[in-house]
Amino acid sequence: MEKAKFGKKLIQIWKYSRRFPVIPIAIFCVLVFVAIFADVITPYPPNEMSLTERLTPPFFMPEGSTAHLLGTDNIGRDILSRMMFGARISLSVSLMVIAIATIIGTFLGMIAGYMRGRVDAVLMRVTDAALAFPALLIALLLGVALGPSFRTVVLALSALSWAPYARMMRGEVLKIRDEDFVAQARIIGSSQARILIKHIFPNVVNTLVVLMTMSVGLVILIEASLSFLGAGIPPPTPSWGSMVADGRNLFQRAWWISLFPSLAIGAVVLSGNFLGDWIRDKMDPRLRQL
Questions:
Q1: Contact of 112 with 119, CB cutoff 8 Å
Q2: What total number of domains does the chain contain?
Q3: pLDDT in tens, 157-170
Q4: Closest Cα partner for 22 from 285, 281, 290, 271?
Q5: Could you tell me the pLDDT band of residue 14, with boundaries at 50, 70 and 90?
Q6: Spatial distance between the Cα atoms of 59 and 69, rounded to a whole number of angstroms
Q7: What is the SS3 assignment for 236?
Q8: pTM of the model
Q9: Residue (of 212, 252, 254, 248) closest to 227 by Cα position
Q10: ∠84-88-89 over CA atoms, to 5°?
Q11: Which CATH number covers residue 214?
């Protein structure tokens, strides 16, 4: 009976989570809170070393200590504190890259979709070229060429992240540009800029919000990959990717150095995808009726 009740409870939680994604929203709220208040809530400075406490296991292990809840790395830095500051780095990179990509991609995509003709052909060929290059490889080359830094990571990721926005916005504008309300705006003499901003842009915001939400986890994943490869955020600045790299040679002896940052990356990526799917279902009237 207890197992049956527990199973029904899980089913109820699952159905509720499909209507409202509690866990993904909670993860993003925690990420934003930690990123903003990292200076206040971290138990230790992120780069504070203590060689006498190096490779301390997490608190739930026999040799662990509550002084370092998630343990320490090979030079005695607190894993939890570095993860909190790493959340600030990851979120900052993600927000800046998405803002730049959204502005560039939305502008080019709307111009291409509305103007069509040669303008559309030229802009879409440039977009296709940007989409053809592997984003991680190009970002890695730029990171190596310009040197690892926060600015380099943002520049490298922004250089190619705009292309999916441009392609998506162009397709949405093509659907809308021949609608009756757009034709009426042309008849009354509205300028092209006014038509794009007042009449077309509000009708593509839903798609834009979904794409931005789903891009958060992807940008964080690519930033972590660059840091892992040594072309992202330079040490000793804490980054989830560099933390994973710090523990890769010590995984059998001190698995917690790499595991906890990896779990954080995976949780954010999955949360972004689930939240994006939920927003798409809520904003798309065709899916909302199913």
A1: yes
A2: 1
A3: 888 888 999 999 99
A4: 271
A5: low
A6: 5
A7: coil
A8: 0.83
A9: 248
A10: 115
A11: 1.10.3720.10
Q: What span, in angstroms and rounded, lies between the C-alpha atoms of 233 and 244?
A: 13
Q: Distance (Å, rounded) from C-alpha 241 to C-alpha 3?
A: 40
Domain span holding position 120 = 79-288
Q: Is residue 19 part of a domain?
A: no
Cα–Cα distance between 165 and 108 in angstroms, integer?
9
Handedness of CA 43, 47, 52, 54 (dihedral sign): positive
φ and ψ of 235, to 5 deg: -70, 155
In a domain, 174, yes or no: yes
- In this prediction, residue 289 carries a pLDDT of 47
7 domain-assigned = no
Residue 85 exposed, middle or buried by CB count within 10 Å (0-12, 13-18, 19+): buried
Q: How far apart are CA 45 and CA 78, in angstroms?
A: 8
Please indicate, yes or no, if residue 10 is contained in any of the structural domains.
Answer: no
